[in-house]
């Protein structure tokens, strides 16, 4: 019911905007992510960020090309790769040419394979994959393809920045690594082991384990196990309900050291940590909300919160997706020629609303940008989860991993 309601509201808004501009057809972007189940809050938050970015950054400025508007069409994949492929086909059958997805690299791997095969078989109905948050390094390495673009820093890029901070802290002697048992969780663990070994071979990895994704109700045993190892730091790529559950279990068992994360913030998470997370929770990511980098960024964040008071700008890169896609469509002079749009997008350099430059690296379609290490604190301009707490940038690596090698062997049409 929630998904149908969202679809109806989004469609009604898009038709109104389209009619006002005098055009019958909008440029549709399929949003394929969880809108039900344990990760629904994360999915709905991302959906609202896409809707807001499309309206504020494109539609309110007159759209693209000859006045065409962006329309975000939600599809609930229930965090399932199989369901995602079904929804992908439904979107394609509806004539949608742009696919946005981010939650779960397992889903992203399934989608990128399916889209690559579809485009080979259907050159007149090609689609582009706008990956805004699935960070398995393989997606822009061995599994790269011309139709896939990643706007988030991948797991290796983020771990490289994060381990720079860890390596500089002489008090860290023992590290515990824990994550969800799927491609992304495994990639985080592998990157942590590799980078720590290169930068601080003296650090002892006292734990390295994976747990079932979305199925653990009580993480207390994991918290106790971590405490028993006397770890000085914890590294996890957990997200959604799994991040909330794991983090609370660690802190409630008396842990006081740093917990280095990828996704320990946002709707349903930040308030759950509150004061207990201050001084411990760290997050590696892109997009600086605090302190605001400009009046424009500050106004954008305020306006989003006014429209969606129960949601957060937890994935600021979504604004980059929308702005860069609009530029690519205008540069290509078409919203249906996917080769032209993709060619315009690859290699693009973009000045982000968040105050940094982004380059969509041509050889593997990986966005290169600044990566920040942020702290959970109440000393913020823009809080999250209506909690009074948010993320404050502590360290920044500009154009992180810009020269990092890739195994991608891009095959262009």
Can you give a write-up of this model?
InterPro entries: BCAA_transport, Leu-bd, Peripla_BP_I. Keywords: Amino-acid transport, Signal, Transport. Residues 1-24 form the signal peptide. This is Leucine-binding protein domain-containing protein. Residues 27-373 form the Leucine-binding protein domain. With 413 residues, this protein is α/β, with parallel strands linked by helices. It folds into two domains: 2-153 and 294-368, Response regulator (Rossmann fold), CATH 3.40.50; 156-290 and 370-397, Response regulator (Rossmann fold), CATH 3.40.50.2300. Helix content is 39%, strand content 18%. The protein has twelve helices and 15 strands. The protein has helices at 2-21, 40-57, 81-93, 105-121, 155-167, 183-199, 220-228, 240-252, 270-273, 295-307, 317-332, 338-345; strands spanning 27-33, 70-76, 98-101, 128-131, 148-150, 174-180, 204-211, 233-236, 259-261, 281-285, 349-351, 357-360, 367-368, 371-377, 390-397. The strands form three sheets. It has a seven-stranded mixed beta sheet with strand order 7-6-8-9-10-14-15, sandwiched between helices. The protein has a five-stranded parallel beta sheet with strand order 2-1-3-4-5, sandwiched between helices. The chain has a three-stranded antiparallel beta sheet with strand order 11-12-13, with no helix packed on it. α2 links the parallel β1 (27-33) and β2. α2 packs across α11. The two termini are 41 Å apart. The model is unreliable at 1-12 and 14-24 (pLDDT under 50).
